[in-house]
Amino acid sequence: MRGSSFFDSVGQLDVEFRGQLMKIPVFYYDGTATTAVFLARYAELRRLLPDPRFVPARLAPGLGAVTVSAFEYRDTDIGPYNELAISVPLCEPSASVNLPGRALLTALRRRQFHAWVQHLPVTTEIARLGGVEFFNYPKFLASIDFTELAGRRTCRLAEDGEHILTLESKPLLDLGAEHIQLFSHLWMDGQPQSSEFKINALEAGHTSRPGVVSLTLGEHHPIARELARLLVSRRAVHVQQLNRFEGILYGPDHHTLPLLARALRGATISEPTVVADGPASVRSHV
Length: 286
Prior knowledge:
By secondary structure, this protein is α+β, with helices and mostly antiparallel strands. The chain has 5 helices and 16 strands. The protein has helices spanning 42-48, 102-110, 125-135, 222-230, 257-266, and strands at residues 13-17, 20-24, 26-41, 63-76, 81-89, 112-119, 143-149, 152-159, 162-169, 176-188, 191-207, 213-217, 238-249, 267-269, 272-274, 282-284. Residues 273-286 have low confidence and may be disordered.
């Protein structure tokens, strides 16, 4: 929420890129999210990833996972927008023992989730542009529509009118506050890239109860067909609901020379200033 102490001590820079004004890191003041974990074919997941340093987390012999996460950002530094992430949970670090279930259980216990981001459609151009140029997120513009009826929340994803998927979820009642770290793993300029999305969840719940989420895939869109090939079942094995959260999306972890060159060519960056209460509250102003 704006004015929340969660954002204290985090400095921001104003960046103008291709006529769009952005802030790095990006503050998310009010959002809602639903994430569902589905069993997937491990061998297919390995073929999906671009480098051996990305290792899918094992859930069982021959099985990994795919997550579908639907985000509704109601208030952010770049305006309101919706987003849907299709990701592969990873064993991190990649050299650690990848026993069945170990990586996912560790992630749930620590509230630290590492995942390869395969697709990341969004609903606004500023969200697409910043994500692609500075992180190489696999973003594209799409329609992501949320509806609520009879206590069920539905997210429908489509591109140019072509249905990709629909995620429908029942509400969770046992909600509490928690801190979560989402680490997105990407591929940029021929090497691994990553970023952290730090979340302060004010109303969060988890369940492995069956029937909380249903997934329906489209018939013809390439992403829907890819998911149909990857998934063993469209029945979620775990669900996380964040009914109310705030977050900080930090900048890319690896500042490669091509990334720096792109930023310098296209961006005008203002100098950060220090407000009256000292260095802990560094903020930037145009």
